[in-house]
Structures are given as C-alpha cells and as structure tokens.
Amino acid sequence: MKVADLAKVFPTETLEVGTVLFKQGDIDGDGYIVQQGRVELSRIVGDAVQRGIFIEAGQIFGVYKTLFENEMRYFTCTIVQKSRITTIPEQVLKDRIAASDPFIIYCVRNWPNLGDRLISDSSGENSGD
C-alpha cells in the first residue's frame, strides 16, 4: 500500500503553520504520516530546546511512543509548512505490532532509539562513540 493510499483509510486533515500536533510528555500514541507539507520535531532538555528534526511528505512520525512502549512522547511536533497529515490511531499500531513476528518486534525495539540518542548526544554522554 502506498503512503497516499493510507489517506483513504485513516483520518486525514490539513493543518496550518504553528499548529502543535502533540507535545513532549503527552501520553497518546497515534502515529502520523505527512501527505504534503513539513513538520518539525523539537524537544526540551534541561533549559535548552533542541530543534531541527524535519519530517516531510511521505515520511512517518509519532510512532516511537507506541512502538517502543514508552510512557510518553519524546518530542513536540509543530506544523512548519501547511500540511496534510494522516493519523494512524494508536490502537491500530498496537494491533499491527501484536500481530507481527516476535523476532521482528525484538529487532525493531532494539534498534537505536533516536530520541534517546538525540538527548544523550546533546549532553555529551555519547561523545567519542
């Protein structure tokens, strides 16, 4: 199935610049696909705001919370270019994950969590890796 076809199956809406889709610390676990436009993921670490992770047309985001069974979201997502966004409900993600091969689930969950890497890289903990 093509990414554009998912817009026919799941809720899709157009969002304006400045709209916050979700915030760091939120507990919902919906996933999203950018059909058109651009969004930015940012994160507060200590007193600093980390910015500059951009997601564009055809890319998926917001699935880490559910995929990695985290308690809350790592990032805040802000629309930076008028965007058409498809929402993949958290329960759909959970159902798909539960129906997957256990080895594949293990592999994906043990893949480096980019949220954790971004956080630790900014604090200098991973310097020299």
Descriptive labels:
29% helix; 5 helices; 129 residues; alpha+beta; Jelly Rolls; disordered C terminus; 6-stranded antiparallel β-sheet
Report on the structure:
- The chain is α+β, with helices and mostly antiparallel strands.
- The protein has a single domain, classed as Sandwich (Jelly Rolls), CATH 2.60.120.10.
- 29% of the residues lie in helices and 36% in strands.
- The protein contains five helices and six strands, in the order H-E-E-E-E-E-H-E-H-H-H.
- Strands 1, 2, 3, 4, 5 and 6 form a six-stranded antiparallel sheet that branches.
- The longest helix has 10 residues.
- The radius of gyration is 15 Å and the shape is globular.
- It starts with a helix and ends in a 6-residue tail after the last helix.
Helix content: 25-40%
Distance between the termini: 38 Å
**Structural class estimated from helices and strands:** alpha+beta
Could you give a short account of the major beta sheet?
6 strands, antiparallel
- CATH structural fold name: Jelly Rolls
**Quick check: average pLDDT?**
86
The CATH superfamily is Jelly Rolls
Number of strands: 6
Strand content: 35-45%
* The level-1 CATH class: Mainly Beta
Shape: globular
Tally of DSSP helical segments: 5
Low-confidence stretches: 122-129
CATH architecture descriptor name: Sandwich
Q: What's the structural domain tally?
A: 1
Radius of gyration: 15 Å
**Helix and strand pattern:** HEEEEEHEHHH
